[in-house]
Amino acid sequence: MGTLGFWRLAQADPEWIAAVDPDGTEHRAGDLLARANRLVHGLRGLGLQPGDGICGLVPNGVDGLVLYLAAMQAGWYYTPVNWHLTGPEIAYIVSDSEAKAFFVHPRYLKEGARGAETIEPHRRFILGEKIDGFRQVSELTDGQPDTAPEGRTAGATMHYTSGTTGKPKGVKRGLNGLDPDDSAELMTFLLGLFGITPGRPNAHLITSPNYHTAVTQFGGTALHMGHTLVYMDKWDAEEMLRVCERYRVTNSHLVPTHFKRLLALPEQTRAKYDLSSLKWMIHAAAPCPVPVKWAMFEWWGDCVYEYYAATEGGGTLATPEGWKTHPGTVGKAWPISELLIVDEQGEPVPTGTAGTIYMKMMGASFEYKGDPDKTAANRLKDYFTVGDIGYLDQDGYLYLCDRKADMIISGGANIYPAEIENELMVHPKVADVAVFGIPDEEWGEQIKAVVEPAPGIEPGPELARELLASLEGRLARMKWPKSVDFIAEMPREPNGKLLKRKLRAPYWEGHDRAI
């Protein structure tokens, strides 16, 4: 221990450019360190103790990074709040997390002000001009020393799961009581799995909203390894290529939707940018169609890594060579993780047989804050599941079929929408696609596809026929969608997660779900 961790690195080299805001403003490590230190002194003055929590409703950039760095060295829980939420949803998280301070960026003031109603006025802070009902952050930090606070101890993030079923839950881990830099150095194990090396020159590109677990984990860990964090505000395909060239980006965290949109760029646009710096471009969060991934390898070379994991811990990793020898896999279990595939009765299934995926990670226990029932319901001995279905091959590689909740039961057969989506997604006239079951009197459920056409493509019966015909010989007829509807834009969270329930709901009005 002793060479990594942001606070250590910043003291050793205060001039290092540790972060770049979306507008191109560069921030030296020494300045970020001083800001984080002043914030700790100020919040301690407000009475915060180790184990307390703070919430931030902030866009991608160093304002959120300073909140994170302060909490991580003061033994606090930091909860970044999803900025797409409404006031009452924000209020729920601020209240449920028992936050002792809430920071709001002016960009999200309208809903942020509604969300602040559950916390006392002297604990609400605005990151900007003075405004009624909030204190300015400068009130906390002005006159505070830049020096390291006494009794530093490692904090943790507490992310709220997306809440696809009922209210979102905070995933809370125990604090480890370590020195913050030592704790940060332990975190670098995660990036080490991918072969990522510490030191300069390295730059980590942040493409997705910082309120997602993986974005915080990968970005924070890259920073602790001495990489420069380069933030994007709103993701755009060509802008990403420009930024990669400009800052010689070496690593990033992406989702398959990014790949699809990057590949849709004209050939001359793609060829315009020097991407020779890319070394570890990591993706997760959704299944990636096999042809899309092959196309990324052809363009970017062997720098595309994939993993499967959950906020709750544990996971798999597919290296470029592992994936190429096992196309479609999400990889093998991490050295500190174990996988278990079980049937409906919780009994292990044979190799090659699909079942519910359970995982466990050594030394990583968690609880859903305030919900022991939910914590227990998702467990099997010391394994847990997020409800995904998949199978292991004879080499121990995991393949995902779908989420249990999305499985279609038609005529008694289990049909996995992800398989159908992958086949439709590769069609050049498709920008995005979702497949799910809708009520069918005879079969229980029938298969519906909803398609977002590629730019400039006319939706209609002709396109529907062409898309279905493209499945000939590639997918059994029983898996073909019975009908195709079109949509201008797919409802996705910015991390790439599809909000299927939004699409599905209208079709199920007045019906009881059969499953």
TrEMBL record:
Range of residues in the leader sequence: none
Keywords from the named record: Ligase
Keyword Zinc included in the entry's annotation: no
Cross-referenced InterPro entries: AMP-bd_C, AMP-bd_C_sf, AMP-binding_CS, AMP-dep_synth/lig_dom, ANL_N_sf
Domain AMP-dependent synthetase/ligase intervals: 7-360
Domain AMP-binding enzyme C-terminal: start-end pairs: 419-497
Residue segments, region Disordered: 140-173
PANTHER family xrefs: ACYL-COA SYNTHETASE, MEDIUM-CHAIN ACYL-COA LIGASE ACSF2, MITOCHONDRIAL
Record-stated family: Belongs to the ATP-dependent AMP-binding enzyme family.
Name of the protein described by the UniProt record: Acyl-CoA synthetase
Species annotation: Nonomuraea helvata
